[in-house]
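User: Predict the complex.
Assistant: Input components as received:
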Amino acid sequence: MSVIKKLVTSVALASAMFASPTMAQEDVRIALVVKALGIGFFEAANEGAQEAAAELGNVEIIYTGPTDTTAEGQIEVINALIAQQVDAIAISSNDTDALVPALKRAMQRGITVLSWDSGVAPEGRQLHLNPSSNPLIGNMIIKLAADHLPDGGEVALLSATTTSTNQNIWMEEMNKVMGNYPGIEVVATVYGDDLADKSYREATGLMQTYPDLDAIIAPTSVGIVAAAQAVVDAGKVGQVNVTGLGLPSEMAGAIESGASKSFAIWNPIDLGYSATMLAYELSQNGAEAAPGAEIPMGRMGTLTLDENNEGAMADPFVYDAGNIDEFKSIF
Amino acid sequence: MKRFIPLREAILSAAILFLTLLVASRFPGFVAPANLANVFNDTAPLIILALGQMVVILTRCIDLSVAANLALTGMVVAMINVAIPGLPIPIILTIAVLMGAFMGAINGILVWKLSIPPIVVTLGTMTIFRGIIFLISDGKWVNSHEMSPAFTGFPRTVLLGLPALSWIAILTVVAFGIMMARTQFGRSIFAVGGNPHAAVYTGINVGKTQFWAFVVSGALAGLTGYLWVARYAVAYVDIAGGFELEVVAACVIGGISIAGGIGTVGGAVLGAIFLGVVKNALPVVDISPFWQLAISGSAILIAVAFNARSGRNKGRVILKSAEATQ
């Protein structure tokens, strides 16, 4: 054996010996804690987190959560993660307040904590990632209808109850941006009370009262499904487009029948991806979670934090015939 | 004359006619035959359930679990359909009716054998049934694309100009008309509600009659469960939430005495149609949604007030005619 060969071998061996522990130390461990395991929505979020991990290279995702959606279960999971000394915890919480003490303890141990999807009280996390924001949703619901009405037309709103906070805020935000959609006229707002039968009846009534109606916008998951069924039963597929906010699994039939051309809701894959990116930025790149801060999150752009350290990820994601099959089994 | 067209039904029919014309004055399309057929079809589940509820109320009981029974049966048949898409509709219908009847029988047994007040029993089973839906479905929805076309298509199948859903309601009305007037069970229901003590002396088992009344109500709720889920092509925990109160309201408007013993099939049907017309009219007459609830409520109160008056008159008339025939 030549000297050179010996030298090369020993160098290789030495570098291998050095390399493996250094690699292990550098592997950033980010825990994605979900409300409960086995829910399609969160499995999809994990998929996004894995995508972010692959992009970042030196990240290991620990996808975990309790078996049922309880705060107690999540506290146990958090305690176990503290013991494992993970670098960051990104959690979709089962309880706004109950998790705060456990998460505070994690932060005291130097672990980065952020909440996503379902938030934790401000003292229990560094930032909260909302899937979207009220102005973005308000704009999206009218845009969905307007995109299929290049020459303008009559649209009607089918909401939940008259007192539903979310729906009222979204419709208010929608009215603010109506000027951007000339030719689109909102002819009526009706309330289906989030009951399938009442929503169906209201949608039928809309089509009778406004024979030239072009679209029904339902920013509620019960309403959009019921309205789509009413359009099919009235034989108005192709004339009246049902759109708004719904879940792909529930809307697959409406897309198939043509009653709905497209609808929107958050994309869980993007949400898991962004949460992972944010956790990495906070724990590794020294990004500071403070009001007004702008934190990059890879392909999703940047997150701007408000006075409560909350930020909105993006526009709701649009689902149509092109991608419904991919998502209908997810959530 | 009054023998053939009872006053209560006459007033209610007039009220429905008046209401329909009032709506037509603001929205002429409402009285188009096709739309009236739609309104009837939309009211069909309420008619079926109101008839079941009528039988229970006549025996001095009340069944608050009908909507939960409907929802549970609907969820079960929807899940069966997802698991075995090829199962023929007649079998689905049979399962729905039997399941509903079984749940009704649970109510009936508790009322009959344990003598628990019916309102307490059905309030309890109502919550239990809703809870069971959550357990078996895990809170998930059964959606239209998972159901087979035959399953969702059956209530929409048009026969002689009307959908199957409407025909089932009509058949139920006819069957109840015959049952209440011509069968021993039908007559014993009136006897039990009118005067339970006298009923015992005539050899009628009061508890058993109440038990069968609950079974009938449950069976109809089960049947409606399938029809409901197929019509709206979706099954989830909260379907038909609060519908039990609408069913009771239909009975009360139709002149079924909440104290038992007084009421007719025609009354229950008209009561249901009255509510159906109100519910279908409100969306098309362009009234502020904030007023709609108040208007529905007032309509119920006015109808009941009319009934209370006509009920008193009718009582006297019956006594006089009874004297006259002797």
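Confidence is low (pLDDT under 50) at residues 16-24 of chain A.
Let me know if you want any component modeled separately.
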